[in-house]
């Protein structure tokens, strides 16, 4: 009908193709990883495993890479149009594997900061950043285990998958936003601790402060764009029993 065409026309005009958006998001994620590595290498002394501040430097690099960029990639797997038809199991495995890789990097990042604190005699878990970060990791652990049990194990009942799916989707976005908030607070905390005696103070915005603040903003933009992509109706994988799904399968499969 005419009313239906008028209703869908604005949506179609505003629709953005997923592939170029995904390419832009991938480039942004790689930029975030490159910038956090550059920050730690150029201004913070590089990397080592000796318990010094160079051991700590692994923490921000692994957290940004795992808990933000790789986790964001895992979240967007089902937005790829190729996942909308054919067997779903390979995409489930890819989604779970990317999330598992993010979790492994996150655990290594936690190990780096705890090793640094213990070697230096610094107390653990006293700042808001540490509380928020650990809560995010624990929530991520529960999310991955519950997702594995509900969606990858073959004996999980259909009703359980249907019940848990919206919960899994919601907490996926929530964990990503918590990860972004943890990274932003961690960057700010590190700058406050580092830019004081013997260096240009943080309030005077030396080059390191500008660089790290920019990194924090890019991480925030990355997280917001991922959540926006997850919420966009036209990029959601249609339910297998819906009319839209059958139309998609006819269009993809001929």
CATH architecture: Up-down Bundle
Number of helices: 9
* CATH level 3 topology: Four Helix Bundle (Hemerythrin (Met), subunit A)
Percent helix among the residues?
A: over 70%
- State which percent range the strand residues make up: under 5%
Q: What is the CATH class designation? A: Mainly Alpha
Q: Major beta sheet, specifics?
A: none
Radius of gyration: 21 Å
N-to-C SSE series? HHHHHHHHH
Provide the number of structural domains. 1
Structural class: mainly alpha
Describe the structure.
The protein is an all-alpha fold. It has a single domain, classed as Four Helix Bundle (Hemerythrin (Met), subunit A) (Up-down Bundle). Helix content is 75%, strand content 0%. The chain is built from 9 helices and no strands. The protein has helices at 2-14, 18-43, 53-56, 58-75, 89-120, 128-152, 158-194, 207-231, 243-253. The longest helix is centred in the last third of the chain and has 37 residues, at 158-194. Its EC number is 7.2.1.3.
Topology:
Elements: H1 2-14, H2 18-43, H3 53-56, H4 58-75, H5 89-120, H6 128-152, H7 158-194, H8 207-231, H9 243-253
What are the main properties of this structure?
disordered N terminus, 254 residues, single chain, 9 helices, globular, mainly alpha, Four Helix Bundle (Hemerythrin (Met), subunit A)
